[in-house]
Amino acid sequence: MSTSKKSQKQDTRLAHAGRDPARFDGFVNTPIYRGSTVLYPTLQCLEANDQDYSYGRLGTPTVDALQTALAELEGGHATLLTPSGLSAISATLLSFVSSGDDILVSDSVYRPTRRFCENVLKRLGVATTYYDPLIGGGIAGLLTDKTKLVFTESPGSQTFEVQDIPAIAEAAHKRGAVVIMDNTWATPLYFKPFSHGVDVSIHAATKYIVGHADAMLGAITTNKATRAAVARTHDELGLCPGPEDVYLGLRGLRSLSVRLARHQASGLEMAEWLAGRPEVAQVIHPARPGDPGYALWQRDFTGASGLFSIVLKPCSQKALAAMLDGLTLFGMGYSWGGYESLILPFDPRSYRSATTWQVEGSALRLHIGLEDVEDLKADLDAGFARLAKA
């Protein structure tokens, strides 16, 4: 007995969305299409521009396969791919604003998003107001007739505040503002933005969708009402991801569910272990009971990824360096979402403006990869020993 596409469970759709083996001589994976020029068979066809593909920048079967799969999995109307997560963010913001407009942006947003607002948008005459990510429906008090969009990111970058997206969306829509969400942490599997009132969902597909730290990729998924505006800006900016990167995104997507389950389980186990360490003052993980964001996470999300933060008890910079420099499994580097574990110090005090970050010790963001958890504990245990010795 076959099942209809609508009745299929998420993992089944994850394995099959966007695929059409019959179109490619039975090959399971959509081939990599490289190229710029696409030929037309006749002058009539050229003038009518009525074939599926017209130019490499405007799409290929490889690009279409991933775009179709992501839109289906996230519950959106359409997806457009970009060369990076930041390009997805910048293209989306530019799609809805003009000189003289205002936008509202969460204070815990990914810092490059903030830079784009403060540099590019400001230069174009668009004003940005940052708001407390925990404001919820209270955001109504910040909305004006000039507010064109509300930008959300949940959980927040580095500090993992969980936003009340439905309440924010309800208030924004009453004033005609578009709601945009950076959904990279939860992926299309663990948070369904369009069922919570979001109009446009953004992913740094570089992270969990690619999943192997070997490609740069961004994705913008829209609802029906916002598609035209985003598609126009996407086209006019000439955004075009590389064909190999798109293929790697397709490859990574097929194993996303099993990888995320491991990241989630290992991340929660590591968070509990770290909470019991004498060197740790605070663990910030929204899927951990007792976390300030736990109730909203439990209400709106169906899972958690492997990214969270901790705050150490006060120590010297020399001691912190001794801990981090000697780690063998946790690498120090930007990005996350790959199979490897990462650790990175951060301090948002210099760039937050609507909220304050008040901790006494050093803060560390951890990405828990696919290594054995006991080995990861041993690596950090040795690091804590070096910290104490220093």
UniProtKB/TrEMBL annotation:
The residue range of the signal peptide is: none
Q: Which residues cross the membrane?
A: none
Catalytic reaction equation(s): L,L-cystathionine + H2O = L-homocysteine + pyruvate + NH4(+)
**Alphabetically ordered keywords of this record:** Lyase, Pyridoxal phosphate
Q: Can you name this protein?
A: Cystathionine beta-lyase
Biological process terms in GO annotation: L-cysteine catabolic process to pyruvate; transsulfuration
Family named by the database record: Belongs to the trans-sulfuration enzymes family.
Q: Recorded GO terms, molecular function?
A: cysteine-S-conjugate beta-lyase activity; pyridoxal phosphate binding
